[in-house]
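Archive entry. Fields below.
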Amino acid sequence: MKIKAVERKKEINKEWKIFGWLAGIFLVAYFLPLGNPKVTSAIYEAFRLLQWYAREHTLACVVPAMFIAGGIATFLSQASVMRYLGPKSNRFLAYTVASVSGCILAVCSCSVLPMFAGIYTMGAGLGPASAFLYSGPAINVMAIFLSARVLGFEIGLARAVLSIGFAFVIGLLMAAAFRRSEAKRNEIAMAMPEPPQSARSLWKTALFFAGMIFFLVFSDWYNTNDVTIALKDGRVITANIRYTTKDALDIQEYNNAQGKLVSDVHRINKADIVEIKPIPSFTMTVHHYKWPLAGVMGLAVLLMTWQWFSRDEIKEWMRSTWDFAKMIVPLLFGGVFITGFIGALIPEKYVASLVGGNSIFANFFASIIGAIWYFATLTEIPITETLMRLGMGKGPALALLLAGPALSVPSMLVIYKIIGFKKTAVFVALVVAFSTAAGLIFGAFIK
Amino acid sequence: MKKIEILGTGCPKCNTLTENVKKALQETNQTAEVVKITDIKDMIAKGVMFTPGLIIDGKIVSQGKTLNVERIKELIQGN
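PREDICTED_STRUCTURE:
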């Protein structure tokens, strides 16, 4: 029987995969030059970065975001989103929905590509499909919150806003560039699944998601890290803490005359510090109360879950949350570990010479790397964080984030199979060009 | 013999669906030709755009959902 043969082959493949992992780990263990101080410090750095993620980003950000992603996958039907992307839908609405749908739909990039193909061949056509292809993998709740938390609020916000904007514009440009071939393409009738009857009214679902997202907003509230530091030698400086180690702080000082950050980061030992005080601001006031505020939201969500959702729905929600966890946690934490290890081995000067500052070359180079490289879900964030610590400018960092998740060589190959060489090339060129431009402008304003 | 097609690119959800289909077949003592379709172009040609998709005897019975064993049993027997 056919199924038997397929099964057998799959099982053999699985065993080979396990063997590959074991052999890989063996080779690393065998050849790892532990005597080399560079390697030893890289191992230390890998664990340190992992601990930083575990302590600072996991409970407040990754875990709640996974519950939200699971909830989105369970309670928002993909079919109801896709209705706006059908062949007869309003064009403007189709572009808008396609651009923001990345936030609404599941994060798994393997489900984005079939939907892209579907919108292209059976639905609204090349424009909205391109918008969807760009926004689908690039923006989702987890990526936005984690970037804001790890890389800084400005980058997180810029990433969210620009990803949606780019999706819209790139979609329109693609449709304009290929007007002719678009008109010729014959459409297959689209079999849209009927959206299932919703068990509760829309406002209840909306309120439920609002509660969860506000929980994340508060639990993840931005710490400005702007402080006044009183030193033992009597000096008082205002600075931004970039990085904290066990007994030292990496800070960027504020230039008192203009209130602007000085560009270079320097290290002070904790032993030399008398006192660190945060500079008061609205952001910091909220930051102080973030846990009570998040707690209220958490209780509200629990109450809504208990009142409005059936047991089966909750079970389904928990299951898809768990599916996300299984998919994302190994990738994210493995990615953080490897990034920490490799980051410690790359000389800073080398990174700074390629993507430091905010030159056109730096931004372009970052966009190209982002377009080619495959970033497993969310790992673009620790990678960018490490590169920034090694001297990558904020502009190129944004360029990398804008071009990165949307494109990679494997995804290009799939897209090429669906829409052909010319359209793929134009799409890639547009993404790279826009990311470079955005990086340049962002880097010029935000230091 | 029934023909059951499972459409998916290979993400965990699609694998779960395959497992569930096999369980459902075992529990109902039925045999069927089970085919996995992993090429996106083939999926689109069949009119499915949400993975995982399930086609029984040429008819799309579900897409974008990981059906549980009970539901699949109903679908197999209902056909």
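CURATOR_NOTE: Chain B touches chain A at residues 9-13, 22, 31, 33-36, 40-41, 43-45, 47-51, 60, 62-64 (CB under 8 Å).
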